[in-house]
């Protein structure tokens, strides 16, 4: 297939390289207009608008964050091109979610949500068919993993004492809107289960860990489950989960498979 990619940060570069390794082609990379000149003349085509995307792009992948999904997503879907995004937290904005839904229906396209750094979402979705009574997502990261987030204003991340330090306790909607670069997992859990307003989120800085730890706790008619992943960050960005990048490639391969989950 021929893919377009929005952004070329740590996740974007990982996805690009893995897709090429698997025999796919990168038809274009979408970047901000001020970045175009510095990237001219290479093998890959860079564009700054959906209008300039080549017509033969089969699928576009958003790896650039909430603002990029809002800026490019509706136009991509409206033109009839499927879009996969890691920016699930952006859907906490109801106006944007509605705009994306309307554009997808108008273009006959689909917005695919990459599961990101968490698993067990299929179990959570199944449980929501019955009476799902409670869902809590707990995200723990080393202090450096919260750099550049609102945790910077609540904790001294450079001199954090031992133990766990909670810097957010609230709804998934508030977490996704306040932590756009850190709470996409919380948004994925919310969409799979009770929704943004009824999913509780705890975000924790822990100086005693070296991994990103994601935990989901849920209870309902089905019983109760607790699911935990201890994930590593991508080498060149402590805020980007390696599993989140892998999940993008995984969802694309599932969509192309004749048989699969």
Question: What would your notes on this structure say?
Answer:
The protein has eight helices and 13 strands. The chain folds into two domains: 2-113, NAD(P)-binding Rossmann-like Domain (Rossmann fold, 3-Layer(aba) Sandwich), CATH 3.40.50.720; 121-239, Dihydrodipicolinate Reductase, domain 2 (2-Layer Sandwich). It is α/β, with parallel strands linked by helices and 261 residues long. The model has no long low-confidence stretch (mean pLDDT 91). Helix 1 (10-21) packs across helix 8. 31% of the residues lie in helices and 28% in strands. The chain has a six-stranded parallel β-sheet, with helices on both faces. It has a five-stranded mixed β-sheet with strand order 8-9-7-10-11. It has a two-stranded antiparallel ribbon with strand order 12-13. It has helices spanning 10-21, 66-78, 94-107, 121-127, 151-154, 172-178, 184-192, 242-256, and strands at residues 2-6, 25-30, 46-47, 59-62, 82-85, 111-113, 132-141, 164-171, 200-206, 212-220, 223-231, 233-234, 237-241. Strand 5 (82-85), helix 3 and strand 6 (111-113) form a beta-alpha-beta unit. The chain is globular, with a radius of gyration of 19 Å.
């Amino acid at each position: 297939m021929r893919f377009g990619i929005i952004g070329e940060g740590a996740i974007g570069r990982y996805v690009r390289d893995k897709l090429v390794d698997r025999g796919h082609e990168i038809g274009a990379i979408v970047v901000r207009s001020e970045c175009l000149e510095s990237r001219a003349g290479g093998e890959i085509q860079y564009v700054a608008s959906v209008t300039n995307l080549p017509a033969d792009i089969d699928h576009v992948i958003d790896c650039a964050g909430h603002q990029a999904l809002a800026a490019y997503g509706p136009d991509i879907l409206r033109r009839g091109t499927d879009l996969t995004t890691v920016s699930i937290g952006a859907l906490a904005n109801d106006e944007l979610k509605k705009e994306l839904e309307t554009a997808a229906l108008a273009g006959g396209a689909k917005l695919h949500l990459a599961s990101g750094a968490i698993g067990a979402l299929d179990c959570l979705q199944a449980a929501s068919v019955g009476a799902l009574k409670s869902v809590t997502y707990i995200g723990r990261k080393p202090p450096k993993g919260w750099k550049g987030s609102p945790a910077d204003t609540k904790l001294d991340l450079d001199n954090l004492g031992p133990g766990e330090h909670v810097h957010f306790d609230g709804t998934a909607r508030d977490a996704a809107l306040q932590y756009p670069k850190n709470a996409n997992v919380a948004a994925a859990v919310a969409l799979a289960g009770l929704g943004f307003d009824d999913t509780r989120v705890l975000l924790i800085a822990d100086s005693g860990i070296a991994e990103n730890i994601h935990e989901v706790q849920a209870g309902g008619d089905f019983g109760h489950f607790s699911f935990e992943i201890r994930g590593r960050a991508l080498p060149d960005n402590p805020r980007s989960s390696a599993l989140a990048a892998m999940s993008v490639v995984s969802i694309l391969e599932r969509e192309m498979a004749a048989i699969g989950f």
